[in-house]
């Protein structure tokens, strides 16, 4: 079994990926009792630290754990929670669960894309927003649901979208 | 010190939090204190009451008065009128549509009248962050009874006699699963709780974990004792942050009281629980895929046999049960299997939790005895169709299930009857559709989901769902011919028969079932595209839900 | 503290029973005796809140747990506040007037425990239940 402490890996740092962040990730991995079966947990942590999982971070994790980079990429690409692209300052998640769908979430998503001029998982030019379609957030009673970061907006109508977007433009 | 005379119960589940229940809570606390009533009146944060459509929900005990849609500004009236002067705040009482009279008691609200709460017994009744409240309601007695007074075989026998079947969708008898796991000769065994609730539109597992986490921990320990395992794992979606934090609190409280850990109840039984996070993959609800994901790998299913009960987590015998299944266990142990089998139908005992959503008046979580009819659920509990529109169909079983039409609404529902009418129980999602929904579009929605969630391991599912989705797109954009409809039907059966795991085997169900019941809508799109049925627009919405 | 036996668990259960005893499970269990206390303005100014808390404390003290103390609005006999109504399942309600907190003890002992209404405090017996 891999002993994480025994492996020292060069950190592929540059301006978007500062050393402190790698240090934080390294400390997390070194602090684990075992890394057996912990890849997903480590990637959760890495995404929490960096905000996304670019190739360099994936390779760093792979070398640190002594496993092939392809294995890490295989896991990252398999799970929808992991993203390899940077996010805007605010993530607007549109719930596409069935309950929201039958109450018109698809139209909300389309309008939102039109208004911000981006597709899902892209960033607006000002770097403020990313749109994401998510599977059921479990607030079906409030369908259709839009989440901006952690805040949930329920029973959203197309008319409400401008207000929601503007309230985040100021702040 | 004055003794508490009133409890104000406020829901802080995900649904109610989204409607500002936290602000309501804060205001209640402030005003109560300002009026000097904070000694005799206590505010309790609880889990989900299930009536999410009407959230935030505040319930006053012992009067048992049930307030709905309580806004931050209503806190003042609840304190000043109800708590201080004993007057009901009429405008916050639940009103049936088209009725003026408010209903004050929870049990008189039609939404609750036909419900029977077993798995949800403590949701909305206890503070999920206080283990002592759970114990005060009889919690952990089942665990104590099991490990100090019953043999492992007796525990398994009790669960077998209760005829409890897996609530995650499969319906496999839980007692039999435990028996197989127990029979394996191995020093190391695992018991896993499947909390990777993937069906979009089902949220009962989340509610149980948020509202009553200890019932799941207790049941896992009982299961661990029965099969001879000392290690439990809860595999939960990372998208459920509140449930995760409640579980962590619950686990550490249980450890403190020695209800998890070494020598539980001073016996030689040891048991502890870890949490593992999912990362958003529907297929991980399948048990072999779930185990792969627990090991940190891609969540792809394996060929069975060997079954996980024989060779599972890191090759050791592993028993995987769903959250709702576990939540039934403690009551079965304390009240006995006869109590459990007194509810339900011949082959499906007990109750089932359904997440009622879609075009229905009372969206929420309902727990009903098996054997109730869909009509009762939709019209008596659910309050009928929104906006007085006409009922068209209800989808049960999520993306793996099928639609049920008006003709079959009076079927008493259980595992077998639902399969008999071309759908399935599934995890309990129940999406109601009205006359404006076009069923081809619904089928396309589900196919898009399964196509997106197909893990890619086996060809029929990976390529088949994609081709099916393309065909549906062709139909909804008016470019299909009758030959395409036949081809789609044929391909559906090929995917069903050729796929490795449950996801692929059931993925075409929404197509097969909508084609059976709503063939005319398919035909109309082929032959008369300009005059579509239902809601009139079918622009291909191409990319929704596809991660690039 | 680790729980070592079912008896210890039972003990903890009893110690904390207070926390949850006010709540019912919503399944319509109604075999409890109800004590209704009028909490309108005139009731409060005549000491209804003190009476209410006295009931709660006495019930707790005597470990009586089949009684539900409920606050209600104006009962309508302002001259005799605080008003307390006792509903024992299967019997007609009994209305007491001028129940200051010092009367709580006797109502509890005689009426609720022994089932004999306290005649000299009764305002009016046998009326249609409000």
Form type of chain A: elongated
Strand content of chain A: 5-15%
The tally of structural domains of chain A comes to: 2
Q: Can you say what the CATH homologous superfamily of the largest domain in chain A is?
A: Glutaredoxin
Distance between the termini of chain C: 50 Å
Kindly report the spatial arrangement of strands forming the biggest sheet of chain A.
2-1-3-4
CATH class of the largest domain in chain A: Alpha Beta
The H/E string of chain C reads HHEHHEEEHE
At the third CATH level, what is the topology name of the largest domain in chain A? Glutaredoxin
Mean pLDDT of chain C: 83
Strand order of the largest sheet of chain C: 2-1-3-4-5
The share of residues in extended strands of chain C comes to 15-25%
Helix content of chain C: 25-40%
pLDDT < 50 runs, ≥5 residues of chain A: none
Describe this structure in words.
The complex is a heterotrimer of chains A (171), B (548) and C (130). Chain A has 171 residues and is an alpha+beta fold. Chain A folds into 2 domains: 4-78, no CATH class; 90-170, Glutaredoxin. Chain A is 43% helix and 11% strand. Chain A contains 7 helices and 4 strands; from the N terminus they run H-H-H-H-E-H-H-E-E-E-H. Chain B is of the alpha/beta class. Chain B folds into 4 domains: 6-111, 3-Layer(aba) Sandwich (Glutaredoxin), CATH 3.40.30; 131-341, 3-Layer(aba) Sandwich (Rossmann fold), CATH 3.40.50; 351-388 and 395-429, Ubiquitin-like (UB roll) (Roll), CATH 3.10.20; 439-527, de novo design (two linked rop proteins) (Up-down Bundle). In chain B, helix 17 (439-453) runs antiparallel to helix 21, helix 18 (459-476) runs antiparallel to helix 19 and helix 19 crosses helix 21 (509-517). The longest helix of chain B has 18 residues, at 459-476. The N and C termini of chain B lie far apart (62 Å). By secondary structure, chain C is an alpha+beta fold. Chain C has one domain: Glutaredoxin (3-Layer(aba) Sandwich). Chains in contact: A-B, B-C. At the B-C interface, strand 1, helix 3, helix 5 and helix 6 of B face helix 1, helix 2, helix 3, helix 4 and strand 2 of C.
